[in-house]
Structure formats: C-alpha cells, structure tokens
Amino acid sequence: MNKYYRELIKDLHDTTYSDSEYESSLIELEEKINLIVSKLRDVRSIVLKNGFKDINEEIYFFKHIKPQFVAKLIYYNSIYRISVNLLQIPVILTTQFQFKVST
What we know:
By secondary structure, the chain is mainly α. 77% of the residues lie in helices and 0% in strands. The model has no long low-confidence stretch (mean pLDDT 81).
C-alpha cells in the first residue's frame, strides 16, 4: 500500500508543480485545489476500503502521507485567498503605493 501512496504523492507534486507559482491565475489555483481535494478523497476511500495492516502503518500514514496532501491544500488555499483579497482592493489604494516612473 505504501507504493500506491508514493505514486499518489508523486502525481500530486507533478501536477501541482509550476515554475511560476506566484503568477498562477485564479483559475489555475482553483484547478490545483480541486485536484488536491480529489486526491484526498481517493486516499480516504482507499483507506476506508482497505484499512491498515497494523498500527505502524496507520501511524506512518497520518504522520507522513496525509500531511503532504493537507499541506499542499493549505498552501494553495492561502495563495488563492490572498489573490482574491488583492483583487478586491480599490484601485485608488493600489495606485498610491505604485512607484511612478518618469520618462
């Protein structure tokens, strides 16, 4: 079962990785969040279906596997919320903090 979890984690990292994390659009962030939630549902269904072999496997899962998914979800949710809040700032306030470039 650990092999399957490793494959899910590798797939999660591959699909959410981007060279320009800070330039992601809101649509891309929503897609990444939905993907992570979908992967978490898959992991949950597998755990409910198969269970754990022993207590050590359960401890390993909750200590190492699940936190990787939850950390990504928290990260992308935070970026999404910050981006949405930045879009709601009135234009007047944003122009006050921009540097004026004289030509």
